[in-house]
Amino acid sequence: MRGLTRTGLLLFLLVLLNGGCSPGPAGPQASGASQAVRGDALPGRLLFVRQGVVWQWRGREAAPLLGAGTAFQPAWDPAGERIAYVVRENSFSNVVLADGAGQPLKQLTSNGSEAPPNSFTRVSESRWAFYPAWSPDGLRVAVAMQPRPPAGDPPVDAPLELMLLPVGTGAPLSAYGDSEASVGRSVFLADGTAVIFTRAGTGPTGHQKLYLLDLVGGHAGALAGAPEGSYDPALTPDGRWLVFAASQEGRSDLFALPVTGGVPVRLTDQGTARAPALSPDGRLLAFLAISPGEPGFDLWLATVSEETGGALTVGPPRRLTTGLGIDADSGLTWAP
Prior knowledge:
The chain is mainly β. It has one domain: TolB, C-terminal domain (Neuraminidase, 6 Propeller), CATH 2.120.10.30. It has helices spanning 6-17, 120-124, and strands spanning 37-50, 53-66, 71-76, 82-89, 92-99, 104-107, 129-134, 140-145, 161-166, 173-176, 181-188, 194-201, 208-214, 220-222, 230-235, 241-248, 251-258, 265-266, 274-278, 284-290, 297-306, 312-314, 318-319, 333-335.
């Protein structure tokens, strides 16, 4: 990553790959931070993150599931049996697997160092990994990860590449890298032949946009129909529609685009919406947004339908939580 020091990497990611939406303060503090929240009944199991703890909304109740202040960016596997998530430590982060009950299974990366915290040696031996996304067969996890530790004095980070990590045996595979850009959140197409990911150029004029990587032919290019500023890709359960956020003129809202190509359809008009996730039956859209006059993200829900002719539409969004301060960069993930 040309000219970007290690201390600037996380700031770059939070500002650029997050579409310019500030995550805001953490919301309720101290004793209220780990208490269960009750509300509307939701189908399946919906995960979100507060203050480095992964929460699960199941039925009418949301409660902490795993993590102790260092867990972020959870992703359910296709069967709803395992969770891949990021554990963030001093100067590095790793991708870890847990079962559906939140019990650790295995660690997929080894990006850390045993050197003293904040030391030059620790920094020069460490790497970052973010945004796990499962392949449809559950055999691989795509992540945005540095291919090598930082180098130089002060240390300069390598860009984040799209890497495929085997859940079982095998070596990690670098699927996409660019010396002038970093990779963000990704999603596999339903047949597993391609990955849609956020690509963010470095530097003050860097732009972010959704890209499509053909895993069979190895070609990557801008996703047709996706506007500048697009990020946070998610698929409908039938694999026919891509739902994503797009940041334009300081506002962020959700759009839908046919996977086969076409013109984006606007789904929200709130100006702070991001992190879409579809219910397992495809009938509900959950997302995060900041309400007017409030500091942090809360959970919102809208019904999903298709108009005559096939256009994807949503009903009026309704707010499910107040003052939770959900971590928007960690997104949402929904399993049966």
